[in-house]
Amino acid sequence: MKNFIIFLFIFLGLSTIIWFFDNYDTKSYLADTNKIVKNINNHQNLTDDDLRKQIGQMIMVGFNGSSINEQSDVVKAIKEKKIGGVILFNRDKLSNIVSYQQTKKLINDLQSYSDIPLFIAVDAEGGKVNRLNDLIEIKSAYEMGNNKTNEITQIESSKLSQGLKNLGFNMNLAPVVDVNVNNNPAIGGLKRSFSNEPSQVTYQANNFILNHFKNNIIAVVKHFPGQGSALKDTHNELADITNTYSESELIPYQELNKKGLMRSVMVGHLINKNIDQNYPASLSSKFIQNILRQQIDFNGVVMTDDLQMSAIKNNFTFEESIVLAINAGADIVVATKSLSNQYDQNTPYKMHEIIYNNVKNGNIPITRINESYNRIIKLKEQFDIIKK
User: Fold this and answer.
1) What backbone torsions phi and psi does residue 297 show, to the nearest 5 degrees?
2) Domains (range + CATH), the chain
3) List of residues 6+ apart from 122 with CB closer than 8 A
4) What's the pTM value of the predicted model, to 2 decimals?
5) Residues in Cβ contact with 174 at an 8 Å cutoff, skipping those fewer than 6 apart
6) Which of 69, 252, 341, 352 is buried most, with the most CB atoms less than 10 Å from its CB?
7) Distance, CA of 15 to CA of 22 (rounded, Å)
C-alpha cells in the first residue's frame, strides 16, 4: 500500500509537469525574459556619447535671427548637443519668421545641420496667436468653433496644415483644447478656445488634428489638464485652478486619446492643490503620471509649456524646473525666452548640462532618459521626420 501511494504521487507530479510545458507559452516567456535582459543591458551599455545624444533629443529651444550659418548659436547647439527641436517665432528678438521664402530656407538650413532630423515647431493656432505673420492667415479657434457644422474648421485647418507642410514645419503647437469656462485672459480673452462645451471642443479639435495628420504635421494638444477655468495668465504668474477647475475639462483629452488622435500633449503651468499641493501640472507626477499616463492612458510624447514663463521662473530655479519636469514624466523640456528680451544663446547648453549632471549624480534616473528618447524617436518615425 505504501509503495502504491508513493507511485501515485510520482505519477501525479510527472503529469502536472508535462501538462505545464504543454500548455505554457514558453516562447512568450523567453521573449519577455530576453526583452527584460536586453533593456537592462541597454542601460548598462549606454555610452556617455549615447547618453548625451538622448538628452539632446529632449530639448526644444527658441533662437535669435531669421537666417543661420555654421557660426550661428543654434547651429552650434544642434551639432554639439544634438538638440531635438526648435520653435520659430515672429516677434521680440526671436524674429525667425519674416517672409515665405526666407522661412522655408531657414527651416531647410536647420535640418541640414542636424544628424537626427529636428522637430520644427510653431504656434499656429489661428486668430491672434499665429506666429506665421501673414504667410498663412487663419481664423481663431473661437470663430471655428462658432460654426457647429465644423465647416470652417475643415477649411481653415486644411489650409493651415498644407501651408505648414509647404514651408517645412513638422509640428504645430495646436490645437488648444482648453474649455472656455471662465474666459481666461490668455485663452478665452484671446479667442483661443473652440467652445465652453467639452463636446464641442472635442469635435472641432478632432477635425483640426486629422487635417494636420493628413499632411504629416504633428498636432500638439494643449494645455493639459485645462487652462480655460484659470483666472490668471501663466505668462505672467502661476495660475491656481484649485477652486475653479472642473473634471469635465479632461473630456477632450480622454476622447481624443481614445480615437488615437493625441500623439503629443503640452502640459500647462497650472496648480490644483486638490491634486498636488506643491507643484504645477508641468512639474507634477500626479498630473503627468497618475492622470495623463494612467487614468487617460496616454503613451505619446509629453512636453512642457515654456519653462521660462513667469509662472515657473518666479517660483523655481531653472535647474529645479527641468529636474522636476523630467522626473514627473515630461519627455521634452521647452525653453524659448520668447517673452523676454533677455535672449541667452547658452540656454540649450545649460539645459543639457543640467540634465546630464543630474543623471550622473542620481537625481534623474537614466530610465527616464531612455523612455523619453524612445518616445521622441517613435514620434519622429510615425510622421516620417525620421525615415524607418
Assistant:
1) 70, 40
2) 47-382 (3.20.20.300)
3) 87, 88, 97, 131, 132, 164, 169, 171, 172, 173
4) 0.87
5) 123, 124, 125, 126, 208, 219, 220, 222
6) 252
7) 11
* Type of residue at 356: Y
Query: 175 preceded by cis ω (within 30°)?
Result: yes
End-to-end CA distance of the chain: 69
H/E run at residue 178: none
Written as one letter, the residue type at 201 is V
Residue 16: other Cβ atoms inside 10 A: 9
* Cα within 13 Å of Cα(34), Cβ side: 6
* Residue position matching grid coordinates 489638464: 225
Quick check: 255 and 202 in contact, CB under 8 A?
yes
Q: Where are the beta strands (DSSP E) in the chain?
A: 59-61, 85-88, 90-91, 94-95, 119-122, 124-126, 129-130, 171-172, 218-224, 239-240, 264-267, 270-271, 301-304, 333-335
Cβ-contact 184, 230 below 8 angstroms? yes
- Cα–Cα distance for residue pair 124/87, rounded to 1 Å: 11
pLDDT tens digits for 2-26? Answer: 444 444 444 444 444 344 334 434 3
Alpha-carbon 174 to chain mean position:
11
| Residues facing 61 on adjacent strands | 86, 335
Strands 171-172 and 85-88: unpaired
Give the contacts of 233 (CB within 8 A, at least 6 positions apart).
Answer: 184, 185, 186, 239
Cell of 318: 531653472
Name the strand (E) or helix (H) holding 96: none
Integer Cα distance of 226 and 223 in angstroms:
5
In tens, the pLDDT along 44-103 reads 578 999 999 999 999 999 999 999 999 999 999 999 999 999 999 987 657 899 999 999
User: Which cell numbers hold the place of 2?
Assistant: 505504501
- 385 membership: H or E segment, kind and range: none
How far is Cα of residue 52 from the mean position of the Cα atoms in its chain? 20
